[in-house]
Amino acid sequence: MYHYRLCFYKKGDLRFISHLDLLRMFIRALRRASIPVAYSKGFNPQPRLSFAAPLAVGMEGENEYLDLYLSEPWKEETLKDSLNKQLPPELKIKKIKTVKADLPPVSAVLGAALYVAELPFLPSGLLQEVQSLLSREEILKVRKSRKAVKKVNIRPFIYDLKVRDVKGKSVLLMLLAAGSKGGVRPQEILELIPVKGNIRIYRKALFLGEKDSLKTPEGIEPEYYLSEEFCEERAGIQ
Question: What is the DSSP string of the chain?
Fold first, then answer.
């Protein structure tokens, strides 16, 4: 079995499709491109694809990840080109890397995600409110599930918040825990600060590891994305 890690973006009108629809879109593209996908074993075999983390409906993602397993080896560029020919313009593979077959998928080692909220203006007191949130030890949010309603302390899941001015726009960068150990949604952060109006939110990057050792699959640390220089050069989905 051959293991490939794909980095892709999803933007535009495709932000409104569900995670299940995204999975189906990739499966159809793989089938049309005659790519030899490996299948799981058992009574109902399924194509072996593993997404890093589902995107909320309505949200764009600039650097999303998919672990793909093939039954035959393919050259990375051939695989990338073949898939992109079958995918719509708003969903494209940016790069593909061959990884060890036994390497865990991104979903198994996901640690955090960086979200960007583009604000219509810089609200009065936002900087102070962000600092106040970061100084707190407990931030309780009510969460509802099918079985219960409970209060959850989301403060341990907020790794960092930064307010930046990017080309005349104010943006809030939110480095938040993600993955199987728990996390927090960007909308839950926005509910805590004085922001109103039309806010565009998108996911900029995903990170592997624990809080103090986070890196993207390419080895980039969160501080790179949180820096003022990076924000000025690369604001928005390219």
Answer: -EEEEEEEEE-GGGGGS-HHHHHHHHHHHHHHTT--B-B--SSS--B-EEESSPPPTT-EEEEEEEEEEESS---HHHHHHHHHHHS-TTEEEEEEEEE-TTSPPHHHHEEEEEEEEEESS--TTHHHHHHHHHH-S--EEEEE-SS-EEEEE-GGGEEEEEEEEETTEEEEEEEEE-STT----HHHHHTTSS--S--EEEEEEEEES-GGG-B-TTS--HHHHHSHHHHHHH-S--
The pTM of this model reads 0.91
If DSSP codes are grouped into helix, strand and coil, which group holds residue 8?
A: strand
User: What residues pair up with 92 in beta bridges, in sequence order?
Assistant: 9
Q: Considering only CA atoms, which of 230, 196, 212, 123 is closest in space to residue 160?
A: 212
pLDDT, one tens digit per residue, over 194-208 is 777 788 899 999 999
Neighbours of 180 (CB within 10 A): 10
**Residue 58 CB-half CA count within 13 A:** 5
Max mean pLDDT among 38-47, 78-87, 133-142 falls in 78-87
pLDDT by residue (tens digit) across 203-228?
A: 999 999 988 899 999 999 999 988 86
In the predicted model, what is the mean pLDDT of residues 110-136?
Answer: 88
Q: Which amino acid is located at 40 in the chain?
A: S
